[in-house]
Design goal:
cell membrane, mainly alpha, two-stranded antiparallel sheet, 471 residues, MdtK-like
Length: 471
Amino acid sequence: MSAQEKALDPRTRMLLEAPIVPTLLKLAAPNILVMVAQAATGLIETYFVGKLGLDALAGMALVFPIVMLMQMTSAGAMGGGIASAIARALGGGRRADADGLVLHAIVIALGFGVVFSLALLLGGRWLYTLMGGSGEALEAALVYSNWVFVGAILVWLFNSLAAVIRGTGNMAVPANVMVAGVVFLVPASPLLIFGWGPIPGMGIAGGAVALLLYYLLGTIALVVYLRSNRSLLKLKLTGIPLRWALFRDILRVGLLGSVSTLSTNLAIGIATALAGHFGASAIAGYGTASRLEYLLVPLVFGLGAPLLAMVGTCMGAGQRERAMRAAWAGAALAFALTETIGLAAALFPRPWLQLFGSDPGMLETGTQYLQAAGPMYGFFGVGLVLYFASQGAGRLLWPVMGNLVRLAVAAIGGWLALRWGGNLMQVFAMQGVAMVAYGVVIAAAIAGGAWFGRVGWPRTTAGMLQRVQRA
């Protein structure tokens, strides 16, 4: 056994040597449960905001794609770049670089947090008007948006620090912090929205304040852990010089991932704008129904985070065949999970929608979306989990291309459907077609060797592995 092998942390060794599927399931099962808990933070908010009326629900629907853009960029895109860089550094035995990446991740989080705050505080009204907002719904959107984005730095710090810890293969600590946060939000959200006793109700702003408090307390908890002896990596704010090479290692994956995330949320934002042609109830209906699609993101992320760590560690250690096998195992698991949810939503849409309101127009629009797009959720799950795997491999070109294809199909197809006299059902059907294109493009490219050079689509598994070995 070499000196480098002896120096490997037991968790790193598990990612390199343990059976793939049992290891993924072992790491993913609690992580998925916790991601459901994190997703519940948004659902809790929506449930209570729905009690304020249709305009408040529509306003929140306008802001939600932008909030999710920030969430997915900080946790999935740039967070994936952070976790990937750390996993590859640990897999390659570069412990000093892995420690240095912690501080670099914090600097990146602070910068992006400021950018999101300024962009939405200054340009929110223009954006939400462009998305179809008007009247009381637009005013509700601005109140909620301004409160959320004034604290954007907290969201970025929380998700970046969680990504640092996940990059080591430790899913438990971020998971425990998120569960504690949900326990906090269950009473805090209605308390701040409606008020109680001496505490005045803040309306829709109360939901945003409760969310920011969750991120503040969670960030403190993660900092305390990273400063403790239990953490594999150490958070040091002094004595570590900032190096462009470490920034580049995060950004080359994170920035490409951000393009992909932007495309995903832009597709939903455009669909929201198309629904806006049919009024506030249609915006509320689509926004409420599409929250189920957003719920799939943390679910798949629960599987994708350990997959990213495994693929990144294997690539750092030169175990390319194992990285590929892990990717396909993750794709199969993601398809089964998301397709089951999509089919259930298509068959029984109203139980989901009625959690958030009873307006007939909202229920009709939401039902149309779930029936048209729900059966295609499995392809969305495949594309998304392979996106996380590609982050681990440090190869994101084709996942980005897949997302751009999805955006083009959803936007152009939806626009043509309305231009040619179609209805909302046809607009939503194009969202489903776009999900199929997204999953197929990414899976086909990876099968063709996109992680290791030119895409050539070998006809056999043996041919694919030979290409991996030659690379």
